[in-house]
Design a protein that fits this description.
Order of helices and strands: HHHEHEHEHEEEH
Structural class: alpha/beta
Distance between the termini: 65 Å
Helix content: 25-40%
Number of helices: 7
Strand content: 5-15%
Length: about 300
């Protein structure tokens, strides 16, 4: 207990003393460390994702309310959005947040499922009255990656407080490692019906026989190219800068160019969302770099993911 200051102590000295004590007792500001990419998942965490940052959890819950409201509009996009949210919610209900992993490669379709899952996870946690868990995402390293894609993924991991798992030993081996480390049972993918391997799939589809066993979750399977941009631009969701330069489908640098359908007379390109014919989405892709990925997702991340 501090003794009362002597009468001889002037007002200025008293204020100075109180200020000094206040500064000494004030808590230090929390600093958020930047997530390095690439890095492997911390295996010590095993299956349970860490608790989410409170601010991000609140932001994700607000996004869910906005998406839910838009999904009630009776139009084509409203119905697509409603189905996407329901598929994400079912994946969390069936498998639990700890066993669901979202594939995130930085492509536009991956951005769409990332935010659908962020919103669905926030709503799931609120309904369960439990802790706000971080969304676990998986990223497969590949040679010849666009630096813009790498930078975008890095920024998104930090911005949305994601739990990132990266693997560099191929899709099948990476998925097998993720399943072994975390008990993962379902992987949320950005596959759409127009993708090279999207035909015939359902919202919940068992993995191909050449992959380890898991459930593929396809929330945007029936979405069109335009629907993806309605979500990203309509809800002001950040996306990779390459789409502003005329790229409409991202693979590796060696097999991806701006879409010729967007080329202007001066040699520049209109942005991706101004592509009139969604059937030309992959017009900037070639097979020279190897097996093409699906639906603009960024180099075939995972089994049929766009």
């Amino acid at each position: 207990r501090l003794a009362a200051p002597p009468r001889a102590l002037g007002l200025r000295m008293l204020l100075s003393l109180l200020y000094t004590l206040g500064v000494a007792l004030a808590p230090l500001p929390l600093r958020r460390s930047r997530t390095a990419l690439p890095r492997m998942c911390d295996q010590s965490s095993l299956s349970q994702p860490a608790q989410a940052d409170a601010a991000d959890a609140a932001d994700a819950l607000a996004l869910h309310r906005r998406l839910k409201l838009r999904s009630e509009v009776e139009d084509e996009f409203g119905r697509a959005l409603k189905e996407g949210l329901e598929v994400c919610a079912h994946s969390l209900r069936l498998y639990g947040p700890a066993r669901v992993v979202t594939s995130f490669n930085g492509g536009k379709d991956a951005v769409a499922i990332l935010h659908l899952m962020r919103a669905a996870l926030a709503a799931h946690s609120e309904a369960a009255d439990g802790p706000r868990e971080r969304l676990r995402v998986i990223f497969f390293e590949q040679r010849d990656e666009f630096p813009e894609v790498d930078a975008f993924v890095r920024d998104a991991v930090e911005r949305y407080d994601l739990e990132l798992c990266t693997y560099s030993d191929g899709f099948a081996a990476g998925l097998e490692s993720c399943i072994a480390e975390h008990g993962s049972a379902a992987f949320v993918l950005g596959t759409r019906e127009g993708d090279p391997n999207g035909s015939g799939q359902g919202a919940f589809e068992p993995s191909s026989t050449w992959m380890p066993p898991f459930m593929r979750v396809n929330p945007v399977l029936r979405w069109s190219y335009a629907h993806v941009w309605q979500l990203l631009r309509g809800f002001a969701l950040p996306f990779c800068s390459l789409y502003e330069e005329g790229y409409t489908s991202l693979g590796k640098q060696s097999d991806t160019e701006p879409n010729p359908a967007l080329r202007l007379p001066d040699g520049s390109y209109r942005p991706a969302w101004l592509l009139d014919d969604g059937a030309l989405e992959r017009a900037g892709r070639s097979a020279k770099g190897g097996k093409a990925g699906g639906g603009g997702g960024g180099g075939g991340q995972g089994d049929g993911e766009g």
